[in-house]
Each structure stands twice: as structure tokens, then as C-alpha cells.
Design goal:
This protein has 252 residues and is mainly β. It contains two helices and 15 strands. Strands 1-3-6-9-12 form a five-stranded parallel sheet.
Length: 252
């Protein structure tokens, strides 16, 4: 008997607003695919998040499991065209110390992120190998991919936390170099203004529309085999020119 492969579940649309920890947080999701119009909008107000456990707050937090084991199925969710907006409208804004990173990939997770925008977080992307099988082994094996993604307005765009028990030789510098590999099409912009969105930090009525000359209006790519079932667009992030899909049915 031939057992068919499970069909990767897809979620659309998705807006997550000022969550209390990391939302979405993913563990042991082998087939989840979140494509365009599952676009994530994450405006985290720079005050104190509702967070009774005093956990760190991220846009994405992803584990393989609680111990970072090599058990299968491994977490391999795929995300495209997300906009993750943190608490720092400018580099001078600090926000609550619980805000950690736009994306934290840890504990042997192997998620992939494409065509997305991460802006206004203390740290843009944190590759955390400090517990379990080092997360960056998944980079070495080309399972963990980040392509055609922009980080903006982060004092620390890329950060790496090393394993104390299984050092890999990686560092924040080498992970930064990996992120900026020319073929991956990623970019780091100094400030949120450089992204040229209309009003992303107007929390009551945000406007994520890219202005003329915005770097998110182009630069998306869907040539990677992981993106075979995704709707293809030219822009990066959740919103393209003239898009209003998130308006009218939402209240921020």
C-alpha cells in the first residue's frame, strides 16, 4: 500500500498583535507552510507586554523541542512575506527589557524564512545554539534558510549564542556573514525610516504601505524549492503597493 505524503497545511491570512510572549511560537512542525497573505503583522508597543511569566518576547520563537534534541520530525516550518514590527520606532527607543528579537531560532529548530521584513527590534535575528544540538548545524546542512529578507532599525541586526558543550566555531560575525551572502539577497538597513513604509508605528491605525523607492517593493524571490506551493509576488514583507488586505476588518 502506498501512503501519500501529508499535505503541508497552510494558514492565511494571519495578524498577530502585541502578544504576551512569542506568537507565533513553533515546535515540532514539520510540514507547516505559511505563505503570502498569511502575512504576519507584529506591532509590539514599547511598554510592558502582558507577560505573567516574564518570558522574553519575540516575533518568532522556534524550537525543535524543549531540550533541543535531534528527535524527529524536526521543526521545519516555512514562512514567506512576513512583516514583524517591534517596539523601537527609532534606535533611541528602548522599550521594555523583555523584548528580545524579531526572530529567535533555537534548540535545533530548522525553520526557513523568505521575503520578509523584520524591523524595530533590539535584535533582528538571534540564532541560539545554547541548548541542545546546536541550531547552526542546520545552517551548515542548508536546512535552515533565510533569504530575500530585510532587517531594519535594530541595534544588533544579527546575534549568535554559542553552545557551551558542543561548540561549532560559529560567532555573531560568521552568522552575519552567512546572512549577507550575496546569493541570499538579504539586507540590513540602519533605521526603520530607510524601509519607507507609510506609518508602521502608528499603533492605533498603522499603514504598512510601501512608499515610492521602498526596498520592500521588489527583491522577493520564489526560486527556492521550499517555496514551490507559495503565491509569488514581487514585494517583500506582508504588504505591497496599494494593498489593503489588513484594513477594514482589523482593530489595532
Amino acid at each position: 500500500m502506498i501512503v501519500p505524503e501529508p499535505i503541508p497545511p497552510r494558514v492565511r491570512p494571519l495578524i498577530s498583535l502585541s502578544g504576551k510572549k512569542a506568537e507565533p511560537a513553533y515546535s515540532i512542525l514539520t510540514y507547516l507552510r505559511i505563505p503570502l497573505l498569511s502575512a504576519g503583522f507584529w506591532p509590539c508597543v514599547a511598554g510592558v507586554p502582558y507577560n505573567p511569566r516574564s518570558s522574553k518576547v519575540e516575533g518568532f520563537e522556534s524550537d525543535n523541542d524543549a531540550n533541543g534534541s535531534t528527535l524527529t520530525p524536526q521543526t521545519k516550518a516555512i514562512f514567506s512575506n512576513f512583516t514583524l514590527i517591534g517596539p523601537r520606532a527609532t534606535l533611541d527607543n528602548v522599550g521594555n527589557s523583555l523584548f528580545l528579537a524579531g526572530v529567535q531560532i533555537r534548540r535545533n529548530s530548522s525553520i526557513s524564512i523568505f521575503n520578509s521584513l523584520i524591523m524595530g527590534w533590539p535584535t533582528g535575528i538571534l540564532i541560539d545554539a545554547s541548548k541542545g544540538s546546536p541550531t547552526d548545524w542546520n545552517i551548515r546542512d542548508s536546512n535552515l534558510l533565510i533569504k530575500n529578507t530585510i532587517i531594519a532599525g535594530s541595534a544588533t541586526p544579527i546575534k549568535y549564542s554559542a553552545s557551551a558543550t558542543e561548540p561549532t566555531g560559529a560567532s555573531s560575525t560568521t552568522i552575519n556573514d552567512w546572512f549577507l551572502t550575496a546569493a541570499y539577497g538579504n539586507a540590513i538597513l540602519a533605521t526603520n525610516d530607510d524601509v519607507k513604509l507609510t506609518a508602521p508605528f502608528t499603533y492605533g491605525d498603522p499603514d504598512l504601505s510601501p512608499q515610492s523607492g521602498s526596498s520592500v517593493l521588489s527583491g522577493a524571490s520564489f526560486t527556492d524549492p521550499k517555496l514551490g506551493q507559495f503565491t509569488q509576488v514581487d514585494y517583500r514583507g506582508a504588504v505591497g503597493a496599494g494593498d489593503s488586505w489588513y484594513k477594514g476588518w482589523t482593530k489595532f
